Amino acid sequence: MLYRYAESKLENWYCQRERKNIKPLMIRGARQVGKSTLVREFCRKKKLQLIEINLERHQELAPYFKKFDISGLLSEFEAISNLQTNNPDSLIFLDEIQSVPEAIPCLRYFLEDRPGLPVVSAGSLLEFVLEDHEFEMPVGRVEYLHLGPMTYGEFLLAMNEQPLADGAGKFSTNLHEKRLARFREFLFVGGMPEAVASFVETKSQIEARNVQNRIILNYLDDFPKYAGHAHIQRIRKVFNHVPFHLGQKVKFSNISPDDQARDIKQAIHLLVLSQTLVPVVHSSASGLPLSSFAGEKHFKLYFLDVGLANAMARVHWETLDYKAGENMFFERAGSCAEQFVAQHLLNIERNSGLFSNLYYWMRESKSSNAELDFLIERQNEIIPVEVKAGKSGKMRSLAQFISEKAPKHAIRLDLNPASKIKLGDTILNSSPLYEAELVLSLV
Predict the structure, then answer these.
(1) Can you state the angle between helices 333-351 and 173-189, rounded to 10 degrees?
(2) Which tens digits make up the pLDDT trace of 428-438?
(3) In whole angstroms, how far apart are CA 43 and each of 10, 19, 32, 87, 262?
(4) Which pLDDT score is estimated for 112?
């Protein structure tokens, strides 16, 4: 099975059981990123008794959740699973929890009525319920874990490339060339677990692409679950538009000249809630937090996963072919590189406990336009991140940002080996693109 870094987070959470203060855990993430598999694999490795209740299939439990009847719920769980909840090695998994919204505020009472009982919940369209809920959220009584597509590091482990994964942050020409070769594979296969598993087993790009196409169809089939009939066509327009325009500033009329801007904006919002699209919002970066200086009028969109985006854009394996160490000479090189970085930065942000936007910086003027790909904030510092698809490329936008904002640190991701230089008072850390998930170690 595929190893996920989130297993260590599950382990840390589970260790609280011994102190009888283990809070229910809610796993958030898009469809088919492996939430249920993560829980099942954790229980298998720990030899725990998994009591899995799919609430989409057992909506008759809603009255028990509504009354916060923990004793009644545990009896029902035992009847459904034929397992005993008082087993000290039990773990209760409430899957598709969005199907019974009453279950969410009830989670806190598992901690109060049955301290020490591990309870995990998950749901693919959970964000819709969390946004529209009419109940009191169990603030401070529930822990959250974000799960996205597999990272490049996880992909290396899946491909049995432990030395490449362990050597992250280290450099040799041989390691660099091998990582670039696997990086090309990741741009095609992406991080959706089913596609990765298919590629690991068959080594076939065709089979991996077939899996990706099935996942895309499943996403299309989800649209009626969170949109009325009038919205479905608009959602399709947005869904089909973004993979061809990754990282471009959104202009509603470019997506659909026949629809009102507010309707396209709503379609985008729904796809963001489903975590299919990743918004990157403009911030003037005039202070912290970045959100206080953000203007949602200007934003870019990326897709959930680089592999799915390339599948939708019909990018073939041969298109991604480039010799290790050379520039990525193909039409979508820049957008692929940005997409790769965006999904890894989002994973970092979400797993830091923040469920916020990514940000970028731009300046529009008649004499000098500039756009910097990403901004991250850490330890009371704004850190600009520039992405280049090759080994060369000017740093004009980054230089303008440094000149105006004088950050302590800046990051450049490209195909060069790691390096560190000073630009005035700013330390510029450069690192290979494939190490995007390690950017925080650079500052």
Answers:
(1) 90
(2) 999 999 999 99
(3) 10, 19, 19, 14, 45
(4) 93
Contact between 20 and 116 under an 8 Å Cβ cutoff? The reply is yes
- Which SS3 state, helix, strand or coil, does residue 387 take? strand
Q: Are 125 and 96 in contact (CB under 8 A)?
A: no
Q: How many CA atoms lie within 13 A of 438 on its CB side?
A: 20
Q: Give CA–CA dist 27/35, Å, rounded.
A: 7
3-class DSSP state for residue 69?
A: coil
Taking the domains of the chain in order of start, what are their residue ranges? 6-146, 229-442
Q: What's phi and psi for 427, nearest 5 deg?
A: -90, 115
First to last CA, the chain: 34
Q: Which residues contact 85 (CB under 8 A, 6 or more apart)?
A: 51, 74, 77, 78, 92, 117
Indicate the CATH number of 6-146 among 3.40.50.300, 1.10.3720.10, 3.30.360.10, 3.40.1000.70: 3.40.50.300
What tens digit of pLDDT does each residue of 306-327 get? 999 999 999 999 888 655 445 5
Q: Band of the pLDDT at 258, cuts 50, 70, 90?
A: very high
Q: Under 8 Å CB-to-CB from 385, ≥6 apart: which residues? A: 341, 345, 372, 373, 374, 375, 376, 410, 411, 412, 413, 439
Determine which of 61-75, 309-323, 418-432 has the lowest per-residue pLDDT on average: 309-323
